[in-house]
Design a protein that fits this description.
Elements lengths: L25 E5 L2 H12 L9 E5 L8 H10 L5 E5 L11 H4 L3 H15 L3
Parallel strand pairs: 1-2, 2-3
Length: 122
């Protein structure tokens, strides 16, 4: 969703791989308590020498996250560059990759909203 044209703008970093200079780090998590606790764990190990990461929360159900997940993310917001949310998109459960997902209008709309949020235009 962050690199719809496949231009290499967004890419996955592997464990212990350094963040490239000038890159905007992004953490992805589901809107579950487990997802929120994983974000907390990652931020505890986050070096102050690195830029603060964005958090992209991907809804795992067509309902609001449970209170424990919402409160934990709210408590962590000060350590993040920002928090963007992706709505529940059932089609994401049925596709193999981003290219296939972007064939759906609602996924393209969510991707555009996500990019605008992260660019500060939303």
């Amino acid at each position: 969703m962050l690199d719809p044209d496949g231009a290499g703008v967004a890419r996955l970093l592997h464990p212990s791989e350094p963040i490239p200079y000038g890159a905007l780090p992004v953490l992805l998590a589901e809107t579950t308590v487990y997802g929120a606790s994983c974000v907390e764990h990652m931020l505890r190990a986050w070096s102050t020498g690195l830029p603060r990461p964005w958090l992209v929360l991907v809804s795992d159900a067509p309902a609001r996250p449970v209170p424990a997940a919402r409160y934990r993310i709210r408590a962590l917001e000060g350590r993040l560059a920002g928090v963007a949310r992706v709505p529940y998109l059932p089609v994401l459960r049925t596709v193999e990759g981003a290219d296939e997902a972007l064939e759906y209008k609602n996924v393209r709309a969510a991707a555009e909203t996500l990019r605008r949020q992260m660019e500060g235009k939303a």
